[in-house]
Amino acid sequence: MNLPKELGGRALTAAAALLVFLVVSVLYFAPQFRGETLPQHDVIQYEGMARDITEMRLATGEDPQWTGGMFGGMPAYLINVAYPAQLVRRTVGQATKILDTPASFLFFAMTAFWAMLLMMGIDPRPAIVPALAYGLSTYFLLIIGAGHLTKMWALVYAPLMMGGAWITLRRNMWYGGALTALAASLEIGSNHPQIAYYFLLAMGTLWISDAVIAFREKHLRNFAQRTAVLLGAGLLAVASNFAPLWYTATHTEDTIRGGSELAEATEKTTGGLDLDYATAWSYGKAETFNLLIPDFMGRDSGTVFPADGEVAAATDDLGLHGIARQLPMYWGTQPYTGGPVYLGAAVIFLALLGFLLTRGRNKWWIAAVSLLMILLSWGRNFMDFTELAFRVLPGYNKFRTVSMTLVVVQWAAPLLGAFALARLWNDDVDRQRLLRSIAWAAGITGGLCLLFAVAGGVLFDFGERDAAVMMTESYRRILEANDLQNYIDRGIHFEWADRTAAAMAADRAAFMQADAWRSLLMVLLAAGSVLLFALRKIGRKTAALLLAATVLLDLVPVDLRFLSHDNFVSPRRQQVTMTAADRAIRADETLGYRVINLTVSPFNDATTSYFHRSVGGYHGAKLVRYQDLIDRYLSELDDDVLDMLNTRYAIVAGADGTPVPVRRGTEYGAAWLVDTLRCLPDARAEIEALGTVDLRTTAVASPLKSGSMSLNSAPAGPYATGEIELVEYKPNYLKYIAKTDGEAFAVFSEIYYDKGWKAYIDGEEAPYRRVDYLLRGMVLPAGEHTVEWRFRAPGWNWTEGITLAASLLILLGALAALAHLLRKYLSENEG
Question: Which of 147, 137, 701 is nearest to 415 (CA)?
Answer without folding.
Answer: 137
